[in-house]
Amino acid sequence: MERRKFLGLSLAAVALVPASVSAFDFRKDKPDTWKAHKVDEAIKALYGDIKPEESGLSINVPKIASNGGAIPVGMKSDVQLKSLALFQDSNPEAAVAAFTIPADVKTVNYMTKIKMAKSGEITLVGEGTDGKFYKVSKKLDVALGGCEG
Question: Do residues 71 and 117 touch, judged by C-beta distance below 8 A?
Answer without folding.
Answer: no
